[in-house]
Structure formats: C-alpha cells, structure tokens
Amino acid sequence: MASVAFSEKYFESLLKLTPKEQSQANKAVMLFQQDPQHGGLHYEKLTAFRDNKLRSIRANQDVRIILAAAEKEDLYLMLYVDHHEPAYEWAAKRKVEINPNTGSLQVFTVEERPLEETSRQPAAPEKPGLFDTIRDRQLLQLGVPEDAVDLVRAMKIEADLETARERDQIPPDAYEALFMILAGASFEEAYNEIVLTSPDVVDTEDFTTALTRPESLAHFTVADNEQALQEVLNQSIEKWRVFLHPMQRRLATGNKNGPVRVLGGAGTGKTVVAMHRAKWLAEHVATKYSRVLFTTFTRNLAADIQQNLNKICSSEALERVEVMNLDAWVMSFLKKQGYDYGLLADAKEERRLWEQAYSEKPASSDLSMAFFQEEWARVIQPQSVNSVDEYKKASRIGRGTRLNRQQRVEIWPVFERYRHLLASNHLKETDDVYRDARHLLEGQPQLRPSLCSVIVDEAQDMGAQAFMLVRALVPRAPNDLFIVGDGHQRIYGKNKVVLGQCGIDIRGRSARLKVNYRTTDETRRLAVSILEGVEVDDLDGGKDTQQFYHSLMHGPVPEVKWFSSLEEQADQVLTELDANGLSPEACCVIARTRNEVSALRSALENRHQTCHILDGRSANTPAGSLNLATMHRVKGVEFDAVFVASVNEGLVPLNLVIRSAADAVTRRQRENEERALLYVSLTRARKLAFIFGYGAMSEWFEAKKVT
Ligand SMILES: Nc1ncnc2c1ncn2[C@@H]1O[C@H](COP(=O)(O)OP(=O)(O)OP(=O)(O)O)[C@@H](O)[C@H]1O
C-alpha cells in the first residue's frame, strides 16, 4: 500500500471546494492509496512542468489533485486540489525539493516575475540589497533554495520579502530566517533558531527521511496506512492539531532533562505547545497511576483546554491527563485532607476585612489602606511572612514607600489583624491555600499525588507560592515541569515570579515562540506599541523582549474611532458587524469594567442586538448573539473580530486603579498592567480589531484617532 502525505496547502485548497467535491477528492485519495494505478484515477505525469515529480489524479470530471511522486519509495505527497485549470496553473511553476542544506521538504514557486515596482523606482538601482551582508553560501545554509538566491539578491525593501512569501517563491523556513536577519539577527542567530537539527548529510532523494524532520512536519502530515488516512481525512483539519512549528514540535516532544519554560507573545501557540506536550507525556511517560496535571489560571481556560485535548488525544491518553485550574485542584486536594476553609474570592468581602484591619493602624502613620493591601500582596504573602520578626527582615525590593524597622514593627498589627479576621471567617487567600498544601505535602510526603509531570499555562499570573507548590507536587525528574507564559500579559497584580527562587531550575531548557498564528500583523503591531517602554520579565528574573515576534497574516490597520456618546458607539459596532459580514457570535465587545459592559449591553439590546455576556462560567454563545466581556475575562480566548470599546479617559487606564496606588512605583506597576490589559484585548482578534471610545479619549490613543 502506498504511503501518502498531505501538505498544509492541500487542506487549505480542499476546504475551498464544495462538500461534494471534497468528499470526491477524499475518495480519490483513499482509492489511490490502495492502488495508485487504478484506471479511474487517471494518474498522469505532468511532463511540461517545472518539476518532473509532479503528477495529477482525478477527483471527478473536473477536479484535479496535484501530487508529487517519490515512486521509488512508494510515497506520494498530496499538494493541491482544485478545478482543472487553476490546479494545473498552480502546478506549472511549483517545485518540491528536499533542501540539500537543511534537509527540510520545501514547496515553492519558481517564476521570473519581477518583484514589486517599488523596488524599481528611479533610485532603486543604487539601493543596496536587503541581504547584502549575507553571503550566498549563508543564504543556502539558511534554507534558501538555490533557485531563489537571485530573487533574494534582488530584494531591496522589506515588502519584497513579503511579496516573495505571498507568492510562495520563498519557502516558510527560509522566509523566517530572512525575516530574522531583517529584524536585526546575525546569521548565526538566525541559523540557530531556524535550523534546529542540521543533518550531517542530506539525501535529496530520500523523501521518507525528509518527512521525519520537524521542519517538514510543520507543513506536511503523513498517513502511512489506511487507518491513518481515514483519520486525517475525517477530521476537519484544524492546523494546530497537525502542523506544528518546528520549535513547537521540538518543545512538545522528547524527553526533557528537567523543567522547561516557554515564552512567547500573544497568539504564538503557547497553549497549543502545552497541549501537545501533555499528549506526548501521556503517550510516553505517564501511566494510569502516575498522571500529568495540566493547570491553568481559570476554570474557563481549563474547560477550553480539556475540549481541545479531547480532539488530539486517544481515550487512553486522556485518562492520563488531568486538566484543572490550580485553585480548584488545590482546594479539592485539601478538602480531601479535611481542610475546613473557603477561598476568599469576593472583592467586597475582602474590602470589608481590610477596613476592619486598617483600624489597627497606629495614629502616627499616614499610610493608606491601599498601601497595606499592596504590601500584603507583594511582600508578606509571596515571602510567607508570619511574624513581626520575619517582617523586619523581609525583602521589600521594588516597593515604592520606604519603611525602617521601627515603622515595620508599628504597622505589623494591621497585617496580624487581617490574618486573624481571615481565620475567624474560615477564609484563606489563594497564596495561603497554596502554602498550606505545600506544607502538608512536605510534612507527609505519602500524600503527594501520583504525578509524573505538571504543565502550567498562563504562568505569568501565578505567584511564587503557586510555583513553590507546583515544585512540591512532582518529584525532581526528567519531564517534571513544563511552564508556559508571557510577562506581557500579566494582568492580575501578581509579583513577577522568579522560577529559580521557587526551586525551579530552567537553565538551558527555555525557548521563545515568535510566530503569531492568531492576529494580523497590523493588529499585533498596534498591540505591541501599547507596551512600548514597559519592561517585561521572563519569569526568571531576566528581561523578555518582543524581538522577532511577527505574524504572517495581514489585514487592515485597526481603526481608532471616536464618538460623542455610548449610543453612537453601539451603532458603529453594529454597522461594522454588518459591513464586514461578521457573525456576532464570533465577535466580542470588550470593555474595561463590568459597569461599562452592562451599559454597552443595554445600548446594543436597545438596538435589537441580542448579547451574551462572558462571565465566570462559560457557556456556548447562541447563534446571532454578540459576546461582551471585560478585558480580564478575554484572556486566553479569541474571536474573529474584537471591539475594544469605551476606551475613554478615566476608563483606560482605569482612573480608580491608578489613583488608589499608594506610591509612584505602585502607580507605574498598575499603569503597566492597564497597558497589558489592552494588549491582551487587542490580541484576541483573528481578523479585525476596532478601538472605539466616546466623550474624552484615552490619552494613550489621542494621537491615533480617526475622526
Ligand atoms: N502550529 C500552528 N499552526 C496553526 N495554528 C496554530 C499553530 N499554533 C497555534 N495556532 C493557533 O494560533 C492561535 C493561538 O494559539 P494559542 O492560544 O496556543 O497561543 P498562545 O500563545 O497561548 O496565546 P495567548 O498567550 O495570546 O493566549 C490559536 O488559534 C491556535 O489554534
């Protein structure tokens, strides 16, 4: 039986056909796998074309499947499917080759069409080439096909590289390397990033081996038996399930000699990597008695992840993975040990307790209640400070208000009182709960759950106590921890965590994902610009950057529009939905506060638009209803279009939050978090993003507005 592989492009083209044609194409491929020479398929060599490996078969009278044949290996690569003429047109200039330097299987176009006119404007002849500093030999090492070297040499402006990618003249791996060079990387940096496993010798005729390389598997999937073929064809191909970026694949598979940390801007596929890692661990490391715990920040995110894992894991693998938000997991664990506390989750209750505790403040002190709350969250809880003596010694690095030892002694009773109030109300904060669970495990190791591995998603919003608990949950061993996060998206006022200080040593095992698969580059740029100048950490005491972070999709630059009233803003939301043919259930209106979300809801409902508020519990949005959510709630999810609404002065950044900061340092931290909220909101958009406001505009957008 023949082996069949499919390119990503094949599925893209398949999905453009009618359901009937798709099913005919599937049948043809299945028949082909049984018998490539079957008369009904009209297996035909496309001799006059650029690549003599190309063949076609018939799906019906008109629809043709274009494939490349490695006949000696009885291996066939399905590349494209379309109606007769466009299918042959597509095939005429394509080449399918194993790159002799990188070993990756590449499909690209060879054509003599010049690059855009822009490069040939009067001044162009003297313009230096984009890649003049890179030698031909280096271009080849980076995976540029020999046929494309002249084209690369002719590139004069950035748009030339984009044009070449859009026309498939440069294969994706070579494009990425060239993109990095343009963005300032040295040859060595680009090479190390793109050519993950440089083969010693490449056999350019050995397609079977080429298809095992991560670079090839980013764009091809193999079905080497009938069952595999059925599976590939039956599932609607969601790309993330099959076509992993080489870096994603490298991270998701194989034994790791200890904790791994994965960073990456919004939409770079961190959660996808974490899910594939869970799958790999479930298949290779876990047993029924030693499972994988996949934790994330909220119940909604855990539910989404479970749903997606169901799509990629067998039922045996699923039994070996437990998905839960960390709070829920720890509470359930503690309850089983007879723990008799509830979690303090109600902001009003919290405020009430603080107001009582604040009354212990010495009359001589003019510190605000906000100061005490911040001090508690950023100094006392992360360091498990339990007594005045410990407080005297506690590190207060990063705090804006200085306190000498005497002052610490004087204000300590406020914290003691707050702790007492929590206890007398049978309440604990999450940090307490994490700590209690860890102490329990340290004192009674036999209680340790049987886990071989813990995966942590959205790590930027987990604090030190959470990570110390995670460390205690699983013994130090290969594959023990896999941590995924993005400091740019820290929105819950947690201290920056330093994994090394929580006993988690990631040295030599960390990576950053750079390709945004969700958002258009135009939206991504705007989102990144909001965080300009904000220093972002890498979860381990170092700095993170957005260098080389890019998106391959393009669309309109998000519009920043201003209105005179909330009602006018609501009108415009409806106008844009209509004008862009958007389904309301695939879109979301996002505002900073719950009150503003409610006001928007009323305005939209008054205009006969049904709305669906995304809150703590997720339920599917009914068809025709428009999603509405706060900025906090949209973390980790995505929509075709987002309307970041009511970006008004006072709301963005939220005045209340900024004004109540006890000192300048805290104010800056809060302002950065407000920026992160906008970054998160904007990067939820798959196709379109809008920034709307009314009344006085947020100072952050004054310069960008369109009237
Ligand atoms: N290899 C891939 N091929 C195609 N699509 C992908 C790939 N990896 C991820 N995606 C898609 O990109 C989008 C973002 O992925 P994911 O949610 O994993 O990113 P993330 O880095 O966790 O995002 P965020 O931090 O913004 O929540 C999803 O729609 C996902 O299906």
From TrEMBL:
Residue ranges of domain UvrD-like helicase ATP-binding in the record: 243-527
Native organism is Halospina denitrificans
Binding of ATP, residues:
264-271
Which enzyme class, named as a word?
Answer: isomerase
From the UniProt record, list the reaction(s) this protein catalyses: Couples ATP hydrolysis with the unwinding of duplex DNA by translocating in the 3'-5' direction; ATP + H2O = ADP + phosphate + H(+)
UniProt cross-references to SUPFAM superfamilies, sorted A to Z: P-loop containing nucleoside triphosphate hydrolases, RelE-like
One record GO biological process:
recombinational repair
Q: Which UniProt keywords apply?
A: ATP-binding, Helicase, Hydrolase, Isomerase, Nucleotide-binding
Q: What is the lineage of its organism?
A: Bacteria, Pseudomonadati, Pseudomonadota, Gammaproteobacteria, Halospina
Pfam families, per this entry?
Answer: UvrD-helicase (PF00580), UvrD_C (PF13361)
Q: Which family does it belong to?
A: Belongs to the helicase family. UvrD subfamily.
Which Enzyme Commission number(s) are listed? Answer: 5.6.2.4
Q: Which residues cross the membrane?
A: none
Protein name (record): DNA 3'-5' helicase
Record bears the keyword Lipid metabolism = no
Q: GO MF terms on file?
A: 3'-5' DNA helicase activity; ATP binding; ATP hydrolysis activity; DNA binding
